[in-house]
């Protein structure tokens, strides 16, 4: 005769992998970070499911400084490999958008989970993909997450566009012929580079060939604009190619299509 206690003992544990992600490294530094908070909430949720024999595996799957707009993240790749190897039965995340903000990427990930018999649980949104209502809720939330990402992207583009129209520099490396003003916020003409820039445009007008311009610049031993950030490695300073000449000739700042 099999007793209930024996059945409980024989029940296999439900192994839960906790996935955490933040978009910037700053969110992952300090005494108690956003990653720590996500993991703490997820671990508490797993413990609340102890009656269902859930246990959190020891391996951490944390992606600090990675956007939800891509699935090319090291910890996520490790998690997917573990899932396909049959190492877990459920993936737990603080929120749905920790996994992805792209509806298509999210659904592809969930399809891979489902194919491996793995459920996905969002702690703060209180749903799981192991039931029909949870799958419906998941689809709706994924749609709103993608909408939120698109809205943020549009607002950022609008803000940068407005700044450029007012002659503000919105960041990045200054193009050939310019440098960032010491006080920041705008570009100023670099006299030496300006001569080089005008010469490149003049060569193209005469030669009408990107390759011929690149060859002439390399014959003169000229190189592309170089820049060395404080404490960083040197960027640029390369021989000219057809592509690099084209980038200079079509640069929106150099051609006057946007203010510096």
Overall description:
The protein contains 9 helices and 10 strands. By secondary structure, the chain is of the alpha/beta class. The N terminus is likely disordered. The radius of gyration is 27 Å and the shape is elongated. The termini are far apart. A hairpin with a 4-residue loop joins strand 5 and strand 6. Strands 1, 2, 3, 4, 5 and 6 form a 6-stranded mixed sheet that branches. A two-stranded antiparallel ribbon has the order 7-8.
Shape: elongated
The largest sheet is: 6 strands, mixed
| Computed CA radius of gyration, to the nearest angstrom | 27 Å
Q: What's the overall average pLDDT, rounded?
A: 81
Which structural class is indicated by helix and strand composition? alpha/beta
Number of domains: 2
The CATH homologous superfamily of the largest domain: Resolvase, N-terminal catalytic domain
Task: Give the N-to-C terminal Cα separation.
Answer: 83 Å
CATH architecture of the largest domain: 3-Layer(aba) Sandwich
Work out the number of β strands: 10
Series of H and E elements = HEHEEHEHHEEHEEHHEEH
Q: Could you say what the CATH topology of the largest domain is called?
A: Rossmann fold
Residue fraction in strands: 5-15%
CATH class of the largest domain: Alpha Beta
Extract low-pLDDT stretches.
1-9
The portion of residues assigned to helices is 40-55%
Number of helices: 9
């Amino acid at each position: 005769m099999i007793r209930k206690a024996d059945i409980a003992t024989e029940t296999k544990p439900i192994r839960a992998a906790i996935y955490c992600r933040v978009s910037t490294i700053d969110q992952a530094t300090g005494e108690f970070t956003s990653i720590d908070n996500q993991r703490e909430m997820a671990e508490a949720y797993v413990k609340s499911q102890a009656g269902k024999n859930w246990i959190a595996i020891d391996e951490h799957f944390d992606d600090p400084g990675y956007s939800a707009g891509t699935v090319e993240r090291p910890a996520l790749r490790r998690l997917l490999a573990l899932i396909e190897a049959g190492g877990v039965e459920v993936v737990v995340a603080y929120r749905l958008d920790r996994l992805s903000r792209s509806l298509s990427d999210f659904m592809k990930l969930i399809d891979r989970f489902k194919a491996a018999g793995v459920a996905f649980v969002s702690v703060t949104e209180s749903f799981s993909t192991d039931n029909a209502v949870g799958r419906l809720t998941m689809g709706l939330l994924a749609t709103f997450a993608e909408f939120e990402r698109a809205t943020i992207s549009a607002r950022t583009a609008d803000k940068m566009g407005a700044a450029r129209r007012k002659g503000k520099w919105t960041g990045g490396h200054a193009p050939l012929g310019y440098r960032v003003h010491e006080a920041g916020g705008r570009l100023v003409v670099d006299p030496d580079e300006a001569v080089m820039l005008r010469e490149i445009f003049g060569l193209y007008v005469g030669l009408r060939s990107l390759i011929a311009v690149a060859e002439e610049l390399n014959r003169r031993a000229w190189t592309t604009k170089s820049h060395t950030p404080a404490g960083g490695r040197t960027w640029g300073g390369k021989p000219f190619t057809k592509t690099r000449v084209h980038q200079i000739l079509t640069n929106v700042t150099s051609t006057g299509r946007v203010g510096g």
